[in-house]
Design a protein that fits this description.
Blueprint lengths: L1 H26 L3 E6 L5 E6 H27 L4 H6 L5 H32 L10 H33 L1
Antiparallel strand pairs: 1-2
Helix pairs in contact: 1-4, 2-4, 4-5
């Protein structure tokens, strides 16, 4: 049941990333700066197409790599996964929800980084100083999700240990 919420969150994060990334791509100039010097000049920059294609490739690779374990567990692909994460088990549901929601958090993080690059290049719309909250939020979310993973794993170890006795 919970994994469906994780899947919906992942799907929404994919849509939000794609829409915001396309908006950012359309509003950028031909040269995209990703680091500024003290005077506000471009210290490091790449062509617009390189930024777009590297961003999309990074997004696709991260999503495929991170969703694959969830799909393997969900489809019960191997006998070991059937034994460790049986269908209908609440901890299996929590693990799937964690995987899908964690990929959603990664997608949101990529979107925030893309918006930061957009703010560097379009200072008149949003200043890059307004992103400090998000740069603190991303690590906090990662820590919370990693702590939740450890909680799920500890509960799974306890249930496996109780079933073996």
């Amino acid at each position: 049941m919970y994994y469906r919420f994780g899947k919906v969150f992942h799907f929404i994060s994919v849509l939000v990333f794609i829409l915001s990334f396309l908006y950012i791509y359309a509003s950028l100039s031909d040269v995209v700066a990703y680091q500024l010097d003290e005077n506000g000049g471009f210290l490091k920059s790449v062509p617009k197409e390189t930024f777009f294609y590297s961003g999309i490739i990074l997004f696709i690779v991260l999503n495929v790599l991170m969703i694959t374990p969830g799909k393997l567990i969900e489809n019960q692909s191997t006998p070991n996964l059937k034994r460790i994460f049986p269908k209908g088990d609440s901890l299996s549901d929590f693990m799937l929800a964690w995987i899908y929601s964690f990929v959603g958090i990664i997608n949101i993080s990529l979107m925030i980084m893309a918006l930061f690059v957009h703010s560097i290049n379009n200072q008149n719309e949003i200043s890059s100083g307004q992103f400090s909250f998000f740069f603190y939020l991303i690590p906090i979310l990662f820590v919370i999700w990693i702590a939740a993973l450890f909680w799920i794993l500890v509960q799974k170890f306890k249930s496996v240990q109780a079933n073996s006795n």
